[in-house]
Amino acid sequence: AAAAPTRVMFEHGDREELFVGSRPLKQYLKDGKLGWVLRLGELMDELDWTAFEAAYEPGGRPPLHPRRVLGLVMYAAVLQQSSLRQTEALAHRDVGAWWLTGGLTPDHTTIARFIGRHEALLTEDFFVQVTSRIAMHLGATASDLAIDGTVKMAVASSAGALKREGLERKRTEAKEAAASAAEAEAAAIGGREAAPAARRSQVAQARVEQLEAAHSALVEREDARKAAGKSVEDVQVSPTEPEAVMQPLKQSHDFGLGYKPVVAAHPSGLIVAQNLSSGSETEHVEDLIAQHERVLGQAPQRVLADAGFSSIHLLAFFVAHAIDALIPSGRNGKPRSGRLGLFAKSAFRYLEDEDKVLCPAGTEMTPGPPQKDRHGNTHREFRTPACRACPLLDQCTKAKTKTRVYKRYDGDELKDVMSEVLSHPAAQAAYKRRSTMVEPVFARLDAAGFTRFRRKGKHRVTTEFALKCSAHNIALFLGRWRAAVVIFCAIRLGDGSWRLVILGAAVAT
Fold this sequence. Notes:
The protein contains 17 helices and 17 strands. By secondary structure, the protein is of the alpha+beta class.
């Protein structure tokens, strides 16, 4: 008997056998000013494909080598061809794609299966490999790091999102349909209708499981809002994509189902770290720093982030890891303004030596006993009986008790220090670099057609976003982005306040 193969034999194609007319394809690309395609091929050749190769087992038809398939995917992304059918078409008709695939022509199904097989590697390892290699070529080293997030729409329609009442009705209907299908399947055993009945039963049961997952997500969100003392009447969930969260969309006042991708941008323009969550920008900041270290070999010298990242937990993390950070508590590097035009927390001054707080009227507020909030964070509430007679009461609180409560958390001293640091002109000048580093990244991604996700489910959109970031860095390395323009526009909201909206536009060569 023939010995079983001990290793996988991959299909690589052969670039040397590719000609356009009588000219070798390589020479044709050089003459046609498509040398960047050759550089992309060289970049793919420099990467370590061992982990990708290990995902295949010996035997059967030789699979296409991951270098060839992923080279095609990156080439299509650089050309802003985002669908798998567009990518398949490039493999058949585009000379640049021929070079990267070695003349192989994977169809859209093969490409989809490839992405599904290697999702874990594509989400981080491939991004890290590509970015670190590009950083080496560019001579990029650890420096300032600008972190920011955005919102991208999910595949699921916002119109299909359900509140509790609607979801419960759907669950009941699905369970009844599944029970009926199971009875029909049992009755059809041994007959000609057995196979179709079994399929209908499987579909009905899958629908039940889908709605149960949506129910679990809805309960989790309701519990979180209850713990925060908020109403749960408007909580919604998508029955087909429960991980997507209903949230305000960027550049509009509408709400929609979406996810929050987050990037960390280097002064060179590279995305040196990326991640994604359902609805929190701050959830993966520590992972971003770790990814930065994998890409550039060390932690960033300084982190720049907007007020959305101003939390005691993150400030403590940066202190513990000796990472300088500039993170204001309010917009544009300024202290956070108060709600409804009332005095903000920054208008109160904590006297550390006396353990008291001075309110805007100059009255001393004394602390109560320590207590914990819904997240388990310890804090004390400072109050004063002078509130009711204070002439500034209407500017301080709308509470029926006519008493302003100042909450001071363990760790608020970190925010005090940050506020003091950001009061210095040098720190303010350094912080202004944040928008020029990270906003062009989002502008380029938008210009490349990344306005919403094409895949469904959190783990799939996480992979999709990682591939977008890898392609962004490759395009930057190859000189495919000539410039980026970021336009800032102020819009007046219905309550009379103003909102800064960023309209990004990028130009590709």
